[in-house]
Amino acid sequence: MKKPLVSIVIPVYNKAAFIRETLDAALAQTYQAIEIVLVDDGSSDGSLEILKEYHERNPNKIVLIDQDNQGVSPATNKGIEKSRGEYIQFLDADDLMSSDKIEKQANLLRAKGNLAMASCEWVTFLDNPENYQKWKLNTYIDYPNPLDMVLDFFNHSEMMAISSYLTPKELIAKAGPWNEALTINQDGEFFMRVLLQAEQVLFEPEGKVYYRKPGATNVSQQKSYNASKSLLESYRCYEREVLKKEDSHRVREALAKNYLRFIYVTHPKYPDLIKEAEKEFDKFKFTHPVRIGGPKFQMMAKLLGFKNSIRLKRFF
Asked: Which structural domains are found in the chain, ordered by start?
């Protein structure tokens, strides 16, 4: 049987220092029925010249799109639009995959239909992928009901690197495009919608994704006012979509934890956004405490209350 085509969608913006390594990892996949859809989003550091070089060497494997800078979500949506694959593999321009990642997930999804998706382990690294850090996540399991995976993300403050998934394009069409109004957590919001459309998630235990830790500049940008505002809006998007799927106590409590966590990580900056998050939490009208944070923080919150503990958290 002819293997289904997998489109590896890679948006690129000023990643000249890393993009060769990423493209080599994509081209080294043991699963050969692939196309690589590169979307250069107005790079100014020589990334485009590298992409052209790889395109010229692999014209049958690589699709190259050159556009003015619009942001990661429009670039990713363009990549999806131009892809021809039955499955989509998203890959950040500085991340890597084990050579068997796609093949093992494609084999796992064979005969499962176009509403099943696969996940795998992801690890973090700084410079050398051989020196990686593993994470023991609760979500490294199969999910017969993908809503349970979404709620586990919320309850345990976990995430899945987007490159960990292999996703049918039909499922993405049902979920809709990346939200171009968001500037942070747009990937989490997108895959929340994809998971809500899926019938099952299968965990593949052998393939691996290598997620490169962001530099100091990126970390600083992720904590800016606009980024924090976008993060809060992404949690509102979570709430709107998840409650359509199931409106229950367990869902509302998991959603509420996102707003508490926002307050926890944002305090003491941006008091107006914190006030908005408090209103979002208060509307649930819980009659029992909702807990987040580590054991020390939870113990302090029991004794002093959540708000007082937030004020003191910088000291422990």
From this structure: 6-213 (3.90.550.10), 219-288 (no CATH)
